[in-house]
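Researcher: Next entry in the queue.
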Amino acid sequence: MYTLLLWDVDGTLVRGNGAGRRAMNRAFQEVFGIPDAFANVEMAGALDLAFMADVFRRYQVDTGRLEDFLYHYYRALRAEFTPEQAELLPGVVDLLEAIEADGRIFNALGTGNLEVAARIKLDVFDLNRFFPVGGFCERPVERYVVLENAVLQAEAYYGVDFPPERVIVIGDTVRDVAAARQIGARAVAVATGSCRYEDLERAEPDLLLWDLTDSEPLLQMCRSE
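Model: Structure for this entry, 225 residues:
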């Protein structure tokens, strides 16, 4: 039996320590002259384009300049998201290498990030090699739609069918757990992001981990019939 893992990025694979927010603030000020526009935005588990749209509405700026803003954001993100300021989370590389060697488990991204932003973040720690495909926030939709698209992209890329019961969503927020439930997938929560362990526990994921250093429970879940 084959299993597809859909990975969140921020707080699950890497931690930016505010790099994304700083990059958005910097870009918004460069384009619109308004500082700290994203200071109080709740980003954990959210979709980039959804909360960007909220900020554009709040400050009543021209939505037609979104591409201009994104250009400045990506440039700022490359400057802010560096090995000195961001973190590769514990156990990630060892687990991804074990999955790659397995042959029955496949990786894809399932993230609220725009793809360019996700790739910039992962490239800092050479993680893009593990994720040839994925679902991203390319329009302000519900998070479960991003996951559905990730499954479709993975099936097309790997040439394997992944029924919902063979899909596992891995994330660090209760929103990741909820989105997994909406597509009929199993949910693994990792307490390496902004959500407290107790809050993740109340969301009742199928597996709850402090971090990814002990990968055996997840690998056993992947291999279960």
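Model: The first strand starts at residue 3 and ends at 7.
Researcher: Noted, moving on.
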